[in-house]
Amino acid sequence: MIQVRVAALVVDTTGQHVMLLKPLLDADRAGAVVPIWIGELEATSILVAIEDVEMPRPFAHDLMRNLLASVDAEVERVEVTRLEEGTYFAEVTLSTPSGVRRVDARPSDAVALASRAGASIWVAESVLEEAGVPDPTVDEADAERSVDDFRRFLDDVDPEDFRG
């Protein structure tokens, strides 16, 4: 499993919402994203959670989080576990008073819940290998220049430069 974050929510050329999941610490895959097409309501719910927007009434995913809290359960993590015939599958791992439970979920609902609960999001390596695409939000030339600039900075920096 590779830990990811929601890099962006975009709308494709047909008007469909796409959630882009980007690896966090995997340098070999830093320029890749997993695009998952989701519904408009789920996209809105994820965006509200990511942007930490206060809503006057709870969304369905807020209700899920509140229901879990009311029975002393917590979302530990969510995982996009597989891709079959164009359909993504996910699981929510819960910590409950009666032990750890794994629950089948759509990736959009799992990510929306994780975004509210502060839980980590993971993608199976096989899913990233099969569905990963170059990150459209990163300009390869700009990224390469940034790395080169940072290397030059490291080559030229002197610890004395940081003394007050």
TrEMBL record:
Instruction: Tell me the organism.
Output: Protaetiibacter mangrovi
Give the highest taxon in the source lineage.
Bacteria
Q: Coiled coil where?
A: none
Quote the PANTHER family the UniProt record gives. Answer: VON HIPPEL-LINDAU DISEASE TUMOR SUPPRESSOR, VON HIPPEL-LINDAU PROTEIN
UniProt name for this protein? Bifunctional nuclease family protein
Please name the Gene3D superfamilies in this protein's record.
Answer: Bifunctional nuclease domain
Ranges for domain BFN: 1-135
